[in-house]
Amino acid sequence: PDREGDRDLFKLIDRLPRANARRTPAKRPGLQPPVHGIVSSGPEMREVYALIDVAARSRATVLVTGETGTGKELVAHAIHESGPRHRAPFIPINCAAFAEALLESELFGHTRGAFTGADRDRTGLFEEAQGGTLFLDEVGETSGPFQAKLLRVLQEREIRRVGDSRNRRIDVRVLAATNRDLLHVSNGGAFRRDLYYRLAVFPIHLPPLRKRPADIVPLAEHFLALYGQREARPGISLSPEAARLLQSHLWPGNVRELENEIHRALTLAEPGEALTASHFSQTLSGILEPIEANLRAAETLRETMDRIEAWLIRQALSRHGNRRAATARWLGITREGLYKKMKRLGIE
Questions:
Q1: Measured at the alpha carbon of residue 313, what is the angle toward residues 308 and 314, in degrees to the nearest 5?
Q2: pLDDT tens, residue by residue, 1-24
Q3: Residue 211: which residues within 8 A CB-CB, separation 6 or more?
Q4: Architecture in CATH for domain 3-35+212-289
């Protein structure tokens, strides 16, 4: 019997949630306090923390990049709170939520009679943020004409209300964020190259949650504590099964998706209960279905385990872009061992 091969297979299967795992809380050390309000215990965020500290001491415009749901506004708020403007307002705005004319009025303000319905003068967010910080989220979704006006504001440090004839000086630090590659977009003309360089004086990139595996469980525990207190549902924890399930997911929606999953699971659980796979949405709990749905009564145990092992290896290869060395490291086996398994199981 191939006992060494069986041990390797059991290692692979253990990377998926086990249906019959004991419903007891996972034993983990106490939660680490958030740094700058951001929960992370892995090495991937250390550079981000260092950049936040440097940006907080600077007056430079900061461009925070990263996929949707990675926490770009948290980083912007951390820069503001750690800097000399922390006693002044921090005002965020999602640029993608407004049509061009409305966005211009929202940011720059307008005078009475500037357009239909403008029955009084209105102060814009640039003026409201005077002495503080204005955070422009999804700045990559703005139009060309608006980009030209924003560029002028950054260059001249003054704004003009819609319908007004005079300029007003402002003292506002601008932080911006996008989930797009603005440099690449600017090559196609959809975003002004000169505005990109004005915004990206100090760039900070946030890695996606799938690149921060050590942060998944600490973040989940953070959200359990947060929503448990907010909704008076104390003592709810993660079982080992739930922790493995969370770590097996790729989290395309990043931290925001994880937060929603934990909030949903907590709502379904009873106070003091340990969360299991049954508390999570089908997106997560359905991970075992490809195995469960294909169990064949006529197969031997060895044949079933070979099929499961092949499926696990294919999933790992796909997850790592068919890079054999990275796949082997993730599976906890040597590269030579992976090659042997692929050859034995007929995986090309």
A1: 100
A2: 454 554 554 455 455 443 333 333
A3: 44
A4: Orthogonal Bundle (1.10)
